[in-house]
Design goal:
Layout lengths: L2 H19 L13 E8 L6 E9 L4 E9 L9 E4 L8 E6 L7 E10 L4 E10 L6 E4 L10 E9 L7 E7 L9 E2 L9 E5 L7 E10 L2 E11 L6 E4 L10 E9 L7 E7 L9 E4 L5 E7 L7 E10 L2 E4 L3 E4 L6 E3 L5 H4 L15 E3 L8 E7 L3 E4 L1 E2 L8 E4 L6 E2 L7 E4 L2 E8 L4 E7 L1 E4 L11 E2 L1 E3 L4 E8 L4 E6 L6 E2 L16 E2 L4 E8 L7 E5 L1 E4 L11 E2 L1 E3 L4 E8 L7 E6 L6 E4 L7 E2 L5 E8 L3 E3 L6 E8 L4 E6 L1
Parallel strand pairs: 48-50
Antiparallel strand pairs: 1-2, 2-5, 3-4, 3-6, 6-7, 8-9, 9-12, 10-11, 10-13, 13-14, 15-16, 16-19, 17-18, 17-20, 20-21, 20-22, 23-24, 25-31, 26-30, 27-28, 28-29, 31-32, 33-34, 33-37, 35-36, 36-40, 37-38, 37-39, 40-41, 42-43, 42-46, 44-45, 45-51, 46-47, 46-50, 47-49, 49-52, 51-52
Amino acid sequence: MKRKSIYRILAVLFTAVIFFTACTKDDQDVKLAPKLSTAQLLSVTSDGATVVGFVIAQGDGFVERGVCYNTAPAPSIASSIAIYTGANTGATFNVPMSGLAYATTYYVRAYATDANGVTIYGEEFTFTTLPVVPTLLTDAITEITGNSASTGGMVLVDGGALVTVQGVCFGTNPAPTIADSKTSDGKATGPYFSALTNLKGNTKYYVRAYATNSAGTGYGPEQSFTTLIDKPVVTTAAVSLITKISATSGGEVTYDGGGTITARGLAWGLTADPTVEGTVIAGGTGTGAFVSNLTGLTKNTTYHVRAYATNSAGTAYGADISFLTLADILIWHVPGDYLSLSYPGSTYKNWDPANSPILMNSPDVPNILEGYVYMAQASNNWKCTSLADWTGTNYGPGATAGTFSTDNNAGNILATGPVYYQIKANPAALTYTIVATTWGVIGDATDGGWDNSTPLTYSPTSQTWSGPAHLKAGAAFKFRANNAWDINYGSVNHDGKLDTKDNNNIPVTFESDYIITLDLSHAQAYTYSTLSWGLIGDATPGGWSTDTPLSYDATNKVWTATVTLVSSGGAKSFKFRANQAWDLNLGGKGTGDGTADNYAADGFTAALSAGGKNLGVPGNVDGTYKVTLNPVTFVATVVKQ
């Protein structure tokens, strides 16, 4: 009950009580003038409401009670009325009204008529009936294909409230609702168009227009239709087992389009998007996966393949996949008088082709042999051999610089040193290039950005280039020679293998100091690695989840950090780990059983082992410590500051 109505009733009742208590016994037969109140309005719906009347004073009695109502003020019994038909045993009477118009404002008053035909009225109330859901028309279905159709609708009656969205809903069961698939086609008045897409072929669908207002969602009459048979859906399998003359692919028919798959297989050829009009390998019928073996291919040739599937609607294709058959892998050896001094500790021997660096081609560049050779002497003699001995063709200096002679008496090629050379040879043209290189890292992950390389240093013992660099997270780097872009390498897969493909920058996942190593000493198998060190453990600020990075001291070639360590009475410990992962971690010598080795107060020097035991805080004393790691000698020092 509305508060205003309650106050009104209480005021009337209070007045009546005062009046009656003021009467004396001699006044008890006095009749009060008839008086009526419209006390309350209840249960307003879209087509009805209930009005409560209250008889304050009945006078000589009422023969009829009810409510009168109209869409204009001051309704009377000459307007529409609803007569009270209940028992007249109480002062209040509830009169329901029905058959009202939705979303319409009404004026209403209680009334009562006495035996003399005199009618009195209560106070006037006003109310607005609720809106109803919209009424719609659903358009016929047109433009039916195997996976689409066109329809639409129109809101005939908005239900007395703003339509917020309209469209059609559809599904494979009768009486679809907006809980099924649906379109949203705005809220403008008038007819609207709806496109049904992503349908299944040869399938019956049911469609109803819908529109939503504040009263809810209304639906139009149901329409139904059946899609045509659609083309199949087929995927092309990745190409594998590639050789010089063969490969394996295939595909999978994942959807039959509502029809029967009468043929499937693999179309292939030398041009993109091959079709069934060209060369095919039949793969049977029906849905599912199939394997196709390609044979009789030409080496070092690019081919294209596409899976196909056919039903009564036509032939569909999977994605075009290209691949390159393998080329002949050709290896030349680079013997000379430079090997013993240039490769200390290796198996290389002077003038021994079998124990010399090699040049090799690749499937990507089959006509050029390439390799890197270090020549440490001031004057270095070398040549190439086609075999791992002297029985094959030997390549010495030709008549002009950069050319080979196949005359075994041609002599040797001279190169100055010490230099790390890139050598390329073209066997067909009998030409070569030899380029002196020094290497570095470059990129927005490095301090030099993309303009200046951070240099690396060559080690004849390890036959690698390496050096420290601080790398920033969220950026990338790559390797280049001679602080120029003529020769550079990155990694498409970021897997430690180098390549010269486009978009092959190497991303950095976390910021740290790194030792970066570049290995170009294995022809056509160039690799790289990055190594950083940090502290991990519940004794460290980052706990067992976040590494505390160590900085690289290039002068002393150690990793170090000044860090707060917390012992908690010997309950906490720490270890060293590389690259924020557990693949390589160092601890105290022992079984690594999770218990911590304890050490004397103020500091310790400890021999480490891979995967060793946790290290305890010196003397179990909390404090600030300088921690130093030498991962080459596997020694750590921890000194209280």
